[in-house]
Amino acid sequence: MAWFILFLAGLSEIAWAVGLKYTQGFTKPFLSFLTVFFLFLSIGLLGLSMKSLPMSLAYSVWVVIGMLGTVFSGVLLFGDALSVTKLVSILLIVCGVIGLKISS
C-alpha cells in the first residue's frame, strides 16, 4: 500500500508542478488553489508513505516520478525541447534510484 501511496504522491507532484505554469504567476485564483492543493497532497502522501518505506528510497522515487512527469508534460503541453543530453541525464537519475532500491 505504501508504494501505491507514493505513486499517488508522485502524480500529485506532477499536477502541482504543471499547475504552476498554468497559474501564470498565481494570477488565476482557481488554478492557484488547485496547484496549492496538489502541493500539500503530494507532500502529505509522501510523508504517509515514509511510515513504511525508507526515507531515502521514498523521496528518491517521488522525485523521479515528478521529474519524469514534468519533463514529459513540458514536452507535450508546452513544447519544451527534449534533447539526447536531457534523455541521457534522465536515464542516469532513474538508474541512480534503481540502484537505491536494489541496495535497500
From TrEMBL:
<feature type="transmembrane region" description="Helical">
    <location>
        <begin position="33"/>
        <end position="50"/>
    </location>
</feature>
<dbReference type="InterPro" id="IPR045324">
    <property type="entry name" value="Small_multidrug_res"/>
</dbReference>
<feature type="transmembrane region" description="Helical">
    <location>
        <begin position="57"/>
        <end position="78"/>
    </location>
</feature>
<keyword id="KW-0813">Transport</keyword>
<comment type="similarity">
    <text>Belongs to the drug/metabolite transporter (DMT) superfamily. Small multidrug resistance (SMR) (TC 2.A.7.1) family. Gdx/SugE subfamily.</text>
</comment>
<dbReference type="InterPro" id="IPR000390">
    <property type="entry name" value="Small_drug/metabolite_transptr"/>
</dbReference>
<protein>
    <recommendedName>
        <fullName>Guanidinium exporter</fullName>
    </recommendedName>
</protein>
<keyword id="KW-0472">Membrane</keyword>
<dbReference type="InterPro" id="IPR037185">
    <property type="entry name" value="EmrE-like"/>
</dbReference>
<dbReference type="Pfam" id="PF00893">
    <property type="entry name" value="Multi_Drug_Res"/>
</dbReference>
<keyword id="KW-1133">Transmembrane helix</keyword>
<keyword id="KW-1003">Cell membrane</keyword>
<keyword id="KW-0812">Transmembrane</keyword>
<feature type="transmembrane region" description="Helical">
    <location>
        <begin position="84"/>
        <end position="102"/>
    </location>
</feature>
